[in-house]
Design goal:
alpha/beta, seven-stranded mixed beta sheet, about 350 residues, 12 helices
């Protein structure tokens, strides 16, 4: 079996350089890195992860707990996490908490028992049990997509977060619709308790205010981030004495439910009602009409979360931070614009 010393001799470098390349512990010149990786492949060298973990108390593994992995948005995040983890020599253990606080606590414990070095978690609407477990066991964690309301005494965040901007992009959708003449703009919001839901509601209300429109609580319904619930919520909006002339949806799954409800009522988009959605997805451009949407940088969020977690592992005592990544306004035709003039403009 080939050893690290064999790889070093073949590549013409020191054993320390081989270690830096394989462990990502120090930058190495591209041609040197390539020589080491070529030697690793030629010799069939494999690292003894178990032996190394006994020495370093690190397994070079990351736990990822995200719900609705079938959701295209979380699939993109998963791709970003996986790519960044592999690039830094880390394996990935994945669990789905199903957005259930009790199950969330269990899967995080299972990941912890498998001795992952740290975790990346998209928390549920009630993460108290999760936070208690992480605090009790001092588990390094980065919260993904959703912000946990647990500030330090000085007002700063207790945990690292990586997520998209939510309020301003939602406000932009509302002001765009208002600019097209709509005065009754409904929102199908996500699950109560999630920071993404509250932030997008804030953006909705600020968009109305900016456009000089009064907030009407009857125009805000919750689709609980699911297609079927959003379909029922849309039915409630359409049953109003004066229904909305435009709708904004809080995520991609709810957009599908809204479209089902509109179709059941024989309403066309945008002829009878305009539609904009938070979350773009691969086939949004294939709908007729094409969906005007806010695109979140899922892969970038996942990759950044890995980098923030590795920084936390390297500097356990540094101050926590919240990283917000910008979204993109994707201007298509479901809003009622015949020929969009700004395709893919950053929000």
């Amino acid at each position: 079996m080939a050893t690290m010393a064999d790889v070093a001799r073949s590549a013409g470098v020191s054993v320390a350089t081989v270690s830096h390349v394989l462990n990502g512990t120090r930058p190495v010149l591209p041609h040197t890195r390539r020589a080491v990786l070529d030697a690793v492949e030629e010799l069939g060298y494999t690292t003894n992860t178990l032996a190394r973990s006994l020495v370093t108390a690190r397994t070079r593994s990351i736990g990822l707990a995200v719900s609705a992995i079938s959701n295209p948005y979380f699939t993109e995040i998963l791709q970003g996490v996986e790519t960044a983890a592999l690039e830094t020599g880390h394996s990935l253990l994945i669990a789905d908490p199903h957005d259930d606080p009790g199950h969330e606590r269990k899967v995080v414990q299972l990941l912890h028992e498998r001795r992952v070095d740290g975790m990346i978690v998209a928390p549920s609407a009630d993460p108290r049990g999760l936070i208690a477990y992480l605090d009790r066991h001092d588990v390094p964690v980065v919260f993904l997509d959703r912000v946990v309301d647990a500030p330090e005494a000085d007002g700063g965040p207790r945990f690292d977060h990586v997520c998209a901007d939510n309020a301003e992009p939602m406000s932009r959708l509302v002001t765009h619709l208002a600019g097209l003449g709509h005065r009754r703009i409904g929102l199908v919001a996500g699950r109560p308790g999630l920071s993404t839901t509250s932030e997008r509601i804030t953006g909705y209300r600020s968009g109305l205010a900016f456009a000089g429109l009064a907030y009407d609580e009857r125009l805000l319904v919750h689709g609980d981030s699911e297609s079927a619930d959003a379909e029922q919520a849309t039915e409630a909006l359409l049953s109003l004495g004066v229904p909305p002339t435009a709708l904004v949806t809080g995520n991609n799954a709810m957009t599908i439910g809204v479209l089902r409800a509109l179709s059941a009522h024989g309403l066309s988009v945008p002829g009878d009602i305009a539609l904009c959605c938070f979350d773009d997805f691969a086939w949004a451009d294939l709908f007729s009409p094409r969906l005007t949407a806010i695109a979140q940088p899922g892969k970038d969020i996942g990759a950044r979360a890995v980098r923030v977690l590795l920084e936390r592992l390297a500097e356990p005592d540094r101050a926590a931070r919240t990283v917000r990544l910008p979204c993109t306004f994707v201007h298509r035709t479901s809003c009622g614009c015949p020929s969009p003039s700004e395709e893919g403009t950053p929000s």
